[in-house]
Write the structure tokens for this entry.
Amino acid sequence: MNQVPSREIYWNISQHLLLYILFLPFLAIFLYGCYRAWGALLLGKGGIRFGELKGRLKALTNQGLLQRRIVQERYAGLMHLTISWGFVVLFIATTLVAFQDYFGLPVLQGSFYLYFMSLTVDLFGVAAVLGTLMAIVRRFIRPPARLVEPRKFDGFGWLLILFLAVLVTGFLVEGLRIEATGDAWGRWSPGGWVSSLLFRGVGVEYAEAFHQVLWWVHAALSFGFIAAIPYTGVFHLLTAPVNVFLWNPEPSGVISPLRVEDERLGASTIRDFTKKALLDLYACTECGRCQESCPAWTTGKPLTPKGVILDLRDHLTKVYRGEETREMVGDVIAEDVIWACTTCGACHEACPVYIEPIPKILDMRRYLVMEEARFPEQMQETLRNLETRGHPYKGVSAGRTDWAKGLRIPEAAKLQAIDVLYWVGCAGAFDERSQQVTRAMAQVLEAAEVDFAILGNEERCTGDPARRIGNEYLFQLL
């Protein structure tokens, strides 16, 4: 046994330099796909915010590397971790082999070869195989409701099968090398060593011939997988970490105001969204967690946040190619879908890569309300009530302080100073069920001897319902 663990680079492949020539067309296809996506992103408005660097790096660590939101679901989390980290580690190992070939970096000898290039890489490869099999079962055999679609064999599904083929052929190639060379260090590569058992007794000559053929097949499959990334849902492998890094640090309930420099109120075309909003579309992992958590979808409404993002993504691609003839609002995204959103923020909380469907839906609402004056009658009544009555409720005869009858609650206007202002809000003042909560809260504050008061009849609606409906002007007025 050799004293220094090592193996010959590109064993049995005398013309391995052809590998780099073979890679060029696949690389060109990959780069063209990235260039096309970049061009589509440039259709958006505005720049990209890079502030809050510490918070962004923390988010990238938690969600991009540790994938904490993803692992909240055990099966999906384990599946995704093994695939993603397996891919990363195998890519690093392949790059290091190329570095040895080009620059003489001795990665295939010594302890580093034994512990990382053999043992660690093989274990991550085995984990990736198991994770990919889990993904295939989940997508094609026992898919959850949120993944059931008419086109299960889409680009995402085929890429899973291709990635499995890359992994399996890689282990078979390694197993043939171990068997043909009698590698003394072969057991340090558990996946390859187990594969070598399949070829026991085939003879060195046959093992070498089969190794050569399968080595080139493996290389072509690997290059094909890389080339296909920008054209399928697997593109989130590159875009999702960027999207996490550029996440919006504000709470999901905070709605951005209209910008005075905007030529159009709201968004009627894909070009009216920001570049970051368009990046959301390419970062989608198609996991369906947003759809599963959406109360509108759960109660049978036509809205699915996942559907909105994917439809906008397909629309963006067609607009960039000059192939789209449909209108974004009404055709690509139906109006009943736009009005079904409750803006609760559940989809934002569920998304593992910080995609935000709500601002996009609100921008389309703003266009319909303020540019087209086209929105449901019920919402028209709400806006009229806000303008004339100061609250969104119709047919309410009670006043803002009727809920406080029997309680001795001071009003702020009659006092010189207070410690706490208790903001009741329209629901707390006028909705019968919410009035009980309002009274209970006031009684708690009294029992705790908190110095508080209410605005009483001076209180008016904040205008938040108008903003969420899409009437930004009325919100600003209120």
Residues 110-141 form the longest helix (32 residues). The radius of gyration is 30 Å. The CA atoms of residues 393 and 431 lie 8 Å apart. The chain has a mean pLDDT of 92.
